[in-house]
Amino acid sequence: MVFYSAHATPVPAKTSPHGDTSQHRTPRTAPQKPAAKKSAAPEATVSNKSESIVVLGSGASRETQTLSRLALQEVAPGTSPLKTLSKLPGVMFTSSDPLGAYEWSQQIIIRGFDQSRLGFTMDGIPLGNLAYGNDNGLSIGRALQTENNGPATLAQGAGSVGVAASNDLGGALEFTSIDPTTKYGVDVAGTVGSYGTWRTFARVNSGTLPGGGRLYVSYDYQDANKWKGDGIQQQQQANAKFIQPLGEKVKLTLFGDYSQRAENDYQDLSLQLIHTRGYNVDNITNDYGLAKQIARAYQNGTAFPQGITNQDQSYYNSAGLRQDALGYGRLDFGITSRLKGYATVYGHTNTGEGIYATPYEPTPDSLGGSPISVRTTEYDIHREGFIGGLTYKIANHTIDGGFWFENNDFEQARRFYPLSESGYTGSSVHWFRNNPFATQWQSAFNTKTYQFHLQDTWQITPAFKLNYGFKSLVVDNHARQLEGNYMGTPVANTYAGGSITSANGFLPQLGGNYRINRHNEIFADFARNMAAFDNSTTGATSPFAMTTAAYAAAKNSLHPEMSYSEEIGYRYHDHRIQASLTGYYIEFENRLASISPVSSGTNVQGYASILSNVGGVTARGIDAAFNYHFTDNWSIYASYAYNQSTYDDNLTTGGVTYATKGKSVVAMPRNLANVQLSYDDGSIWGNVGMQYQGRRTYTYTNDQWIKPNDIFNLNVGYRFHSHNWVLHGLDAQINVTNLFDKRYVATVGSTGFAVSDPTGSLQTLQAGAPRMVFFTLRKHFF
Questions:
Q1: How far apart are CA 133 and CA 186, in angstroms?
Q2: Strand, coil or helix: what is 604?
Q3: Where are the beta strands (DSSP E) in 56-196?
Q4: 116 three-class SS
Q5: 137 and 153 in contact (C-beta within 8 Å)?
Q6: Which residues contact 12 (CB under 8 A, 6 or more apart)?
Q7: Which run of H or E residues covers position 617?
Q8: From CA 589, how far away is CA 737, in angstroms rounded?
Q9: Is the pLDDT of residue 684 over 70?
Q10: Three-point CA angle 525, 528, 532, nearest 5°
Q11: What gap in Å lies between CA 677 and CA 714, rounded to an integer?
Q12: Looking at residue 51, what is its pLDDT?
């Protein structure tokens, strides 16, 4: 949960600036419309039949919703699926860019659990914990192009026992990729928008090949200026997918992804900065002279330039760079009419850097003498895994079991690079790889994950279904710390090495669904889950982010975080209406936080912070959703969620006990609401939606609050049906984000959370983007 993924003490900007995380069944739906009314490009843009934007999990024994591919394609191209999913009940997503793709500011929270405690998969492949300084995966935006997104499914309380995730305390998001089409076709698209945004996309479908296989290959390039300050948000990506039948009972699927992303950061703000300087305070990448003045003033103890409060108000530059390659091969096979199975192998490599031009470490005189140097946190992931399962049907039982194994080698280092007197040369976003003058620390980690699950779905009567099963999870973490250096002189690495295991042999799930009649059903479920420890030098719940001495003192007393989730709910569905109402109760135990064992006044020996289990959290709430096709062309969707998540214990850190018991969990609002009115006659379509987020806090003692916000978005488009070859297969759309140009705080806790912030000076807020407009043309050939 958000409440345990951050440090218990304020995070200085020096140690956690931008670009770096150094601390830190298908139900009944609306009637199909006549095929003639739909696009001439059925597989190029939208579905060739009417879709509900949200399918509310009919028949499931837990709260679950599926967001249609149509809903994912109606937003501006390049928009993160995470942002689109925020219309689902209980989901809060924020980002300081209009597309939700800027990873430093991405924040998704479900029932109080942030992304580090949610499971994420794509076609069943684990995407890891989605932390910015990711040590075990990658974001969905780097794994799959938005145009290739299929339906996405969310289970708010607990993902299925077979989901490949070692941290799904609070639910799971399962993304899918579309399959190649059976007909040859070419799709191209171009987008232009505010602040110099442009994006191109092309996809070629082979159709059915002589051997029965099907293939597509796609590529996109996206570039945009920041909406404030100086810098770019840039990504290029390629996907390929191939499906080949091997006889009548076996199917082979191959998928590949390559992504390269570079993004200059937005400055983290404080309430004080917003009140005195507004929302547009940002990095000063276009003013190296001012950046040097600020650095020298800090280093010499002299006055800062006019309008500058301190050395952390505006950095010269910061950025995030990520390069990923992901692939999998999957065999689906039918052994008998009752027994079927699948086997998947996958691999993923990542190279990344979090870049920060720091005034805290000047460039040595011998290398140029600038008062600023570039500090990087460097990442290197090599992981491979296997996922397999069998399903057997006998009588009224469907029994499935499976196994997941992953081996992950992760390396991480903190390095410093010289910066010349003229500053950056060329692009403000580029890699630093070859000439560090200092390596503060470097670490190598290996994580082996073993998960087994077994589950039975028993159709006891035609109306009553029972699911029961469990998973066993073992995660072995090993860390090796390597020596650093400064200008060729060895530097001791004080971070801990060693090994630690997170294990639980019985994590049960139990759920039932009772269909009262053809329209009404009730369901209930219980789940117990565990989250494995992080395995990095900067992870907020990593034992190896401690010093050797602190690790030795804490290792034997550390326990993995656990959650116990219960929910009960009701669904209604007919040919025009879907509705659901769910109540839930969650107990979270063994919350991890980094604390100081003594007060700062007595810490003369420099006692290191210790990762500790500091108590629990109780969450209770309701989720409601309503989807109504009140005519063939018009529909309205609404969702509401109430979440009361509070700390069970007071927090003691630095020798001081703080009254956190009963206080609200950081970053999670108690009230969330969405309303969307949609129209689609097959040619003209559009929707206008409002998302409301209640007030949020970023301090454990709740002494500071961020105001609520209500943001409107507009999407409209037209599909051409002309037989003219120019217009045939053409459609156009306009997307307007933040329609009424509200100024508001989007993300809270971007650099972490604090016990308190009485002066409102903690820079851990990201401003929401202003109104922006995007125009897209798509064309399907053949």
A1: 37
A2: coil
A3: 64-67, 91-94, 107-110, 113-114, 119-122, 125-126, 152-155, 172-175, 184-193
A4: helix
A5: no
A6: none
A7: strand 617-628
A8: 39
A9: yes
A10: 145
A11: 10
A12: 60
pLDDT at 424: 79
Q: Quick one: which H or E segment has residue 297?
A: helix 288-300
In terms of Cβ atoms closer than 10 Å to its own Cβ (0-12, 13-18, 19+), residue 628 is middle
Give the span between the Cα atoms of 372 and 374, in whole angstroms: 7
Measured CA to CA, the distance from residue 635 to residue 376 in angstroms comes to: 49
Dihedral-angle region of residue 26 (phi above 0 means left; psi in -120 to 50 means alpha; beta otherwise) = left
Name the burial class of residue 636, with classes exposed (0-12), middle (13-18) and buried (19+) by CB atoms within 10 angstroms of its CB: middle
Label the pairing between strands 172-175 and 119-122. Answer: parallel
Strand partners, 332: 251, 342
SS3 759: coil
- Residues 6 or more apart whose CB falls under 8 angstroms from that of 706 comprise 271, 695, 696, 697, 698, 745, 748, 765
Total residues belonging to the chain: 782
Give the span between the Cα atoms of 345 and 222, in whole angstroms. Answer: 30
The Cα-based distances of 656 to 283, 325, 350 in angstroms read 35, 47, 41
Is the pTM of the predicted complex or chain greater than 0.70? yes
Strand order in the sheet with 119-122: 54-55, 64-67, 152-155, 172-175, 119-122, 125-126
Which residue(s) pair with 693 in the sheet? 672, 709
pLDDT at 34 over 90: no
Q: Please tell me the number of Cα atoms within 13 Å of 97 on its side-chain side.
A: 30
pLDDT tens by residue, 154-189: 998 877 899 999 999 988 999 999 999 999 999 999
Q: Which residues face 479 on adjacent strands? A: 445, 498
Burial class (CB in 10 A: 0-12, 13-18, 19+), 41: buried
From 225, 219, 194, select the one nearest 204 (Cα to Cα).
219
pLDDT digit string, tens, across residues 391-411: 999 999 999 999 999 999 999
Per-residue 3-state assignment (H helix, E strand, C coil) for 302-353: CCCCCCCCCCCCCCCCEEEEEEEEEEEEEEEEECCCCEEEEEEEEEEEEEEE
434 phi, psi to nearest 5 deg: -110, -25
Give me the mean pLDDT over the 510-521 stretch: 96
**CA-CA distance, 156 to 111, in Å (whole number)?**
7
Tell me the pLDDT band of 366, cut-offs 50, 70 and 90. Answer: very high
Whether 72 shows a pLDDT value over 80: the answer reads yes
Of the listed ranges 54-63, 300-309, 572-581, 663-672, the one predicted with least confidence: 54-63
As a whole number, the mean pLDDT across the chain is 90
**What is the DSSP secondary-structure string of 157-220?**
S---TT---S--SS-EEEE-BPPPPSSEEEEEEEEEEGGGEEEEEEEEEE-S-TTS-EEEEEEE
Q: Which residues contact 381 (CB under 8 A, 6 or more apart)?
A: 134, 135, 136, 137, 348, 349, 350, 408, 409, 410
Contact by Cβ (8 Å): 357, 140:
no
Does position 68 have pLDDT exceeding 80, yes or no? yes
**Residue 648 contacts residue 586 (beta carbons within 8 Å):** no
- What is the 3 state secondary structure string of 380-399? EEEEEEEEEEEEEEECCEEE
- Report the alpha-carbon distance of residue 528 to residue 58 in Å, rounded: 23
Task: Give 630: exposed, middle or buried? Use CB within 10 Å, 0-12, 13-18, 19+.
Answer: exposed
How far apart, in whole angstroms, are the C-alpha atoms of residue 38 and residue 360? 60
pLDDT band, very low/low/confident/very high, at 6 (cuts 50, 70, 90): very low
Residues whose CB is less than 8 angstroms from the CB of residue 335 and which lie 6 or more positions away in sequence, other chains included = 249, 341
